[in-house]
Amino acid sequence: MPTPPERIVHLGLGAFHRAHQAWYTAHALDAAEWGIVAFSGRSRDLVDRLTPQDGLYTLVERAAEGDRFELIPSIVRVEAGDDVAAFVAAVADPRIAILTLTITEAGYRLDADGSPNLEDAAMASDVELLAAAFANAGELRSAQPATALGRVLLALDARRRAGSGAIAIVPCDNLPDNGGLLRRALAGLARRTSAELAVWLGISVSVVSTSIDRITPAIDLDTEPRAVRDATGWLDAAPVVTEPFADWVLEGDFPAGRPDWESAGARFVDEIAPWENRKLWMLNGAHTVLAAFGPTRGHAVVSDAIDDPVCLRLVEALWDDDARQLPTFDLADYRAALLERFRNPRIEHRLAQIAQDSTTKARLRIVPVALGELAVGRPATGCAAAIAAWMLGVRAGTAPAPHGIDPAAIAELDASARHALLTALDARLAADAGFATRVSDAIAVLETS
């Protein structure tokens, strides 16, 4: 089979990307026309594993009844994420039509309003570095931004200078309005570094919003390759394990073209917000609750936690609040499907993995629903219980404490500690005495359950 030409660049190579965008691209009817150049995130390990395989890897769809194995050929070149020159050259190539990103929520390094966080040392340093480089073209070749967005902006400037034409950027992280967020973040960086680039971004860069739904757990890279070899005879140092379910919803334009992802099951919509909220609040929100609270009851994976009646009640109560904030959907089938997916005992989705960045995740996945419920006069009891479960996880150390909060100061979860934690999530919730009382009441119930 001929190698597809390089038409897509991806930043943030990992299992999530390979189970989603790479899989959809491989399944598109025109897959032979769309190869992916994939750059790693913070680690070289995956580059070292995939390079000898020319980017080829095994996708293992792990259902309760057994595994299905498939070779995915859409990644045609693998590069280290810290090779800034290679990344800049790839994005500047006129053959490239799309840049996709999976850099995690924390990787964007943004303030609450979506602007670049200049109190972040790496971001502040990149702003200074890029401003100097853009002002003096002689410094461009040696520029080494430390942040993902700094590297993206440097690469886009190289594309502008090369006259390589318009490009679509597709962020695939679990963030509400991820396209709008990225568009505003890049515009904010450009305004601080190059007025000329800021104008070009507005004309030549389309940022597409997406919602992706496919559970892809971390795996043991010693045991899984042996399992693939035993089942198929293939020697694969970097397989991916995922669930059979897959969903991808996109909103936006692709000025230089795109794969026929619809033929692989992707959905293009005029308004993505309801779809991303359904996934973010229900699947990811439930995961955030289970990841914080499940380990306090001795659970290590999602499938065990969801079978605990106390954890299940927390999830169902949160979903009841979610459903009232998603009135355009009939959610009965989606809820049933989520429970079936969570209960798949062969997907070892570890709670410790999900619990990373739990404060940011709770802000995005639970707080908006609580505020929406309170705004229309409803008590948001499901959200209050979910936040209570998160607080118990923070106290126990199963979820990391918010920045600036000393774990020792919240050991008793007294009124002061609860207020500090609630304020860390959202000051408006902390100021609502009734909601704070419901959080306190839920903590008392959970502590005795």
TrEMBL record:
<protein>
    <submittedName>
        <fullName>Mannitol dehydrogenase family protein</fullName>
    </submittedName>
</protein>
<dbReference type="Pfam" id="PF08125">
    <property type="entry name" value="Mannitol_dh_C"/>
</dbReference>
<dbReference type="InterPro" id="IPR013118">
    <property type="entry name" value="Mannitol_DH_C"/>
</dbReference>
<dbReference type="InterPro" id="IPR000669">
    <property type="entry name" value="Mannitol_DH"/>
</dbReference>
<feature type="domain" description="Mannitol dehydrogenase C-terminal">
    <location>
        <begin position="272"/>
        <end position="392"/>
    </location>
</feature>
<dbReference type="InterPro" id="IPR008927">
    <property type="entry name" value="6-PGluconate_DH-like_C_sf"/>
</dbReference>
<feature type="domain" description="Mannitol dehydrogenase N-terminal">
    <location>
        <begin position="6"/>
        <end position="262"/>
    </location>
</feature>
<dbReference type="InterPro" id="IPR036291">
    <property type="entry name" value="NAD(P)-bd_dom_sf"/>
</dbReference>
<dbReference type="Pfam" id="PF01232">
    <property type="entry name" value="Mannitol_dh"/>
</dbReference>
<dbReference type="InterPro" id="IPR013328">
    <property type="entry name" value="6PGD_dom2"/>
</dbReference>
<dbReference type="GO" id="GO:0008926">
    <property type="term" value="F:mannitol-1-phosphate 5-dehydrogenase activity"/>
</dbReference>
<dbReference type="InterPro" id="IPR050988">
    <property type="entry name" value="Mannitol_DH/Oxidoreductase"/>
</dbReference>
<keyword id="KW-0560">Oxidoreductase</keyword>
<dbReference type="InterPro" id="IPR013131">
    <property type="entry name" value="Mannitol_DH_N"/>
</dbReference>
